Amino acid sequence: MRSTLSLSQYVKKRNGVPLGASHSMRNMLSRSFGAKSFPIFWQYWNPIWSYYLSRNVMRPLASFLPISLSILITFLVSGALHDLAVSVIKWNIIVFFTPWFGLMGLMVIASQKAGASYGHLAWFIRASINATFIIVSLGVTYFVESYYT
């Protein structure tokens, strides 16, 4: 039987420091951008949000869907929730984060399937590669959005 970590245990595991610790943000940024692959980047990025997505979306889906599809849907749900939050703030329907996060989800799946790993490279190079994934997917999303608007 799989044990369930509490939020504080999960954050400490991901950040290396307890929830609310003074170096929590620094550790998250260093660990995520310095990750040895884009899928590992997401294991460190925003552990509080990831905890709830994992617990309430990813794990339930993975119990009856293939893991790749569960990953993609989890990214789409995260994007939709971001779109919803921005839509409420702007009082206007926004659909930007859902396709962007969906594209990043596809990049995670493709990276896993390809076995992409750059852990042997210096931290700055790993950070540049991980940032490039995000910037390229953001650029593609902007391009596609501008084409359809």
Short description:
By secondary structure, this protein is mainly α. The chain is built from seven helices and no strands. The mean pLDDT is 94.
Shape: globular
Largest sheet descriptor: none
Helix-strand category: mainly alpha
Rg, alpha carbons:
16 Å
**Count of helical stretches:** 7
Percentage of β-strand residues: under 5%
Percent in helix: over 70%
C-alpha end-to-end distance: 49 Å
Please count the beta strands (DSSP E, at least 2 residues each): 0
Which spans of ≥5 residues are poorly predicted at pLDDT below 50?
Answer: none
Protein described:
The chain is mostly helical. The chain is 74% helix and 0% strand. It is built from 7 helices and no strands. The chain has helices at residues 7-15, 24-33, 38-44, 47-62, 67-90, 97-114, 123-148. It is globular. The mean pLDDT is 94.
How would you summarize the topology of this molecule?
Layout: H1 7-15, H2 24-33, H3 38-44, H4 47-62, H5 67-90, H6 97-114, H7 123-148
Descriptors for this entry?
mainly alpha, about 150 residues
